[in-house]
Amino acid sequence: MNLIRTKKFFAILLITLSFVASCTKYSFKQTNVVFNNVIEKEKFSITNKDTSNTILSYKFNETKIKNYIKDFKTYRYNEDVASMYADAILYACIKYDIDIDIMLSLIKYESSFNSLIVHKRTGCIGATQINPTIWTKQLIEEGIIKEKKDLFSIRNNILSGAYVLNHYMQKTDSMDRALQKYYGTCNYASIYSNNVLGG
Predict the structure, then answer these.
(1) Distance CA 44, CA 54 (A)
(2) How far apart are CA 109 and CA 125, in angstroms?
(3) What percent of the chain has pLDDT over 70?
(4) How far is CA 115 from each of CA 50, 84, 128, 136, 153, rounded to the nearest angstrom?
């Protein structure tokens, strides 16, 4: 009799745990609004510690990005802003097949994670320093932004930067040369590329 009760208990426990796990996955999909049906989180595998579990994989990389920003920003760190950066970076890296570390390093060197910065000489905008004169029309055609001012949005700007970097990667078939083109044609371009790739 006790054996039957024990079996029933474990069967109910197993069903309950399965239900909780499915609810957790569902709520995660609902709250993480940046991701959508076009880019499924199940395809998320850009980590050297991929657990094959969507939630853990996302959380690992989200924490990694937040820690990177925290270490860099020190006393100016803001948890909410870091979360926005993390979500935008993960989305952009999946969509345009870019390594997270490279995107983090690029943003660090381009803007020091300041989404509102405008370069005095070139007029480049935001976290990834997009040149609106060169890229606005193409980014609108791609549906990434609707107008120039959208480049001040963290999400839109990082997505734009990932698009531009991917564009150069397709042309050069080399991350080093792609980064040099991203920076522009000058003597410092190779140094910039080495810095970004070095972290």
Answers:
(1) 7
(2) 14
(3) 70
(4) 30, 11, 8, 17, 7
Provide the pLDDT for residue 180. Answer: 94
Q: How far is 188 from 153, CA to CA, in rounded Å?
A: 28
The answer to whether 107 and 128 have CB atoms below 8 angstroms apart is yes
Summarised one tens digit per residue, pLDDT across range 42-65 is 444 444 444 444 555 778 889 999
- The sign of the CA dihedral 4, 10, 11, 13 is positive
Those residues with Cβ within 8 angstroms of residue 137's Cβ, 6 or more apart along the chain or in another chain: none
Question: Do the beta carbons of residue 90 and residue 62 sit within 8 Å?
Answer: yes
Spatial separation of the C-alpha atoms in residues 6 and 164, rounded to whole Å = 60
Question: What is the distance between the alpha carbons of residues 193 and 175, in angstroms, rounded to a whole number?
Answer: 8
Q: Does domain 48-198 have CATH number 1.10.530.10?
A: yes
pTM: predicted TM-score of the whole model, two decimal places: 0.73
